[in-house]
Amino acid sequence: MQETLNQIPPEAWPFIDLMFNLTMAAAGIWLGITVFVLWRRHASNLTPVNSAEKSRKVQPDFLNVDHKARAEAIKRGEAFEKELDERDIAERKAEARRQRGKVGLLQRLSGIVALIMSLFTIVSIIYGSIFTVTRMGDMMEEYSTAERLIAIIQTHPIAFSVCVIVILARIYAYFAKPAQKEG
Predict the structure, then answer these.
(1) Beta carbons of 170 and 111 less than 8 angstroms apart
(2) 133 and 119 co-located in one domain
(3) Does 28 reside within a domain?
(4) Range of the domain at 166
(5) Domains in the chain, number
(6) 124 found inside a domain
(7) How high is the pLDDT of residue 59?
(8) Are the CB atoms for 76 and 139 separated by under 8 Å?
(9) Same domain, 114 and 137
(10) What crossing angle do the helices spanning 67-131 and 157-175 adopt, rounded to 10°?
């Protein structure tokens, strides 16, 4: 472990410290928001929408069966259940629209943080690979910066392509998707 840390050039430590502090700040803010939301839900005795269940097998149970009244009751129950289902769907849509507006800023913020972390990862890989010339030997001293970058891509194609895909996906998701408005 110490040998690996010794290979990091001293010029990289301020950048690493800054990125670590930003990551810890983002994690602290996220944790604070999460705890606040959970405490608020608990204090308000809110139940998540997805925990509610319906039983479709409920039917009236009569000791003396009046078939005509039973059929009418079942029809009324089905009509009422259909009305409840429509009302539930409308409430879920309204709740989703309401939450989407409030969570939109947090979603964008988390997207930006994910993009920054992806950029930090690829910059760290490239920066560490370029400036650890001692590990790569005398051959790397003859390479230019562009040749070093090409050598990194050739030696670590999977890691590089995953980082590039994540960055491009976040940029596309951030700029290409239209903002949804309530209306």
Answers:
(1) yes
(2) yes
(3) no
(4) 144-174
(5) 2
(6) yes
(7) 55
(8) no
(9) yes
(10) 120
Does residue 168 form part of some domain? yes
116 & 137 share domain: yes
Spans in the chain with pLDDT lower than 70: 46-65, 100-104, 130-143, 178-183
Residue 29's pLDDT is what?
Answer: 95
Residues 9 and 132: beta-carbon distance below 8 Å: yes
Quote the pLDDT of residue 36: 92
- The 10s digit of each residue's pLDDT in 27-44 is 999 999 999 988 887 777
Is 30 inside any structural domain?
no
Tell me the two tokens of residue 159.
Answer: 């890691």
Q: 80-102: per-residue pLDDT in tens?
A: 999 999 999 999 888 877 776 65
Separation of alpha carbons 82 and 54, rounded Å: 12
Instruction: Return the HEC string of 22-85.
Output: HHHHHHHHHHHHHHHHHHHHHHHCCCCHHHCCCCCCCCCCCCCCCHHHHHHHHHHHHHHHHHHH
45: amino acid identity, one letter: N
CA distance 141 to 128: 15
